[in-house]
Amino acid sequence: MNEFLRKKWEMAGLADDYIFNKVMLDYDICLEVLRRILPDLHIKKIKLPNNQQEFAVAPDAKAVRFDIYTTDEQGNHYDIEMQVADHHNIAKRIRYYQTASSMEAYDKGQPYEQADDSYVIFFCNFDPFQLGQQRYVLHKHIDEIPEQIIEDGQTDILFNVPSLRHDVDPKMQAFLDMIAQREVEATDPFVVKLKERIAVVKRNRKWRSEYMRRSVYEMDQEMREKKIREGERKIRDGKREILEGKRELLKGKRELQKSRREILEGKNEVQKGKREIQKSKREIKEGQDRLKEKEQLIQEREQKLHENQQTIIKTSIVAMKALNIDETTIRKEIKEKFNLSDKEIKDYFAE
User: Fold this and answer.
1) How far apart are CA 68 and CA 79, in angstroms?
2) What pLDDT shows up at residue 129?
């Protein structure tokens, strides 16, 4: 662990927030950095920079600790921050820092228009808004008139340190290159002063020990936070699994109820089918009975017709015999008129 921390200390540069704070505590360096960031303000002097200054907007509100905080001769307030990791909360973070800084700009009993201006400056080791800019300057504006800036005295400035766009002036670019540990020409006296200040910080045993204790604490804190996040994740996963289990159970109950309804409907359909079959059987039997009755009636009618025909034939034979018509003629007449066979004719004359 000690070897790891020793190498970390030796390799640390301005991108490390601890080194950045100790370097920026130098009055001349802090003043020059502000001049390079805001050349139009023509800052002549500042108060001695204060690091890790803590403000609380309200007694029960979350406190904010500024990396570097100072004011200039005009009363303008400056908060300078080194943001190493992207926690994806930069916009809300800036708002809170600006709120804390702005509270210092309002003196009790002072008219609002006399409030001092407040500048929150972030050096980010990442692109804070993922828009590819090297510098982002934020002001309030009117949505309906985007070009109309609201002059409320608040300005937020964010630098995308890894960017290679070179959209800033050369002096500012040199400082960004120093933070990013890119090669910088030593012709700039300020660059020389920065390197000398970094060397002074690195030689300070007290700061070295403090850095290592802080690093151990941060690693422990990070490990605890990691375990807490892991525990929270497991709890979320467990809750999600319980919720999914409840949903599956509810779904199973619904499917079971649906199956029961389908079984009941099926039973009802079977009963209905049985009733329809019984009804069909009754209808078939009734039809068969009616058919038998019709067949019997037809047979009775046919029998009656046959008997009537026999009576007519016999009466005709008797009548023709009474007229002395010979048998051969009678046979022929009867056969043709009633369409009888020779056997049937013979049977009639045999009687």
Assistant:
1) 6
2) 95
Query: Does residue 105 register a pLDDT over 70?
Result: no
β-pairing verdict for 118-124 and 135-138: unpaired
For residue 83, the cross-strand partners are 124
Alpha-carbon gap, residue 24 to 51, rounded angstroms = 8
End-to-end CA distance of the chain: 143
**CA-CA-CA-CA dihedral for 69, 71, 75, 77, to nearest 10:** -30
297-321: per-residue pLDDT in tens? 888 887 887 778 878 877 888 888 8
| Alpha-carbon span 90 to 88, nearest angstrom | 6
Proportion of the chain above pLDDT 70, given as a percent: 91
Q: Which is more confident, 284 or 167?
A: 167
Strand arrangement of the beta sheet that strand 63-71 belongs to: 50-56, 63-71, 77-83, 118-124, 154-160, 135-138
Handedness of CA 27, 33, 36, 37 (dihedral sign): negative
Strand ranges inside the chain, DSSP E: 50-56, 63-71, 77-83, 118-124, 135-138, 141-142, 145-149, 154-160
Q: How many whole angstroms separate alpha carbon 12 and alpha carbon 201?
A: 11
Query: Are 124 and 161 in contact, with CB atoms under 8 Å apart?
Result: yes
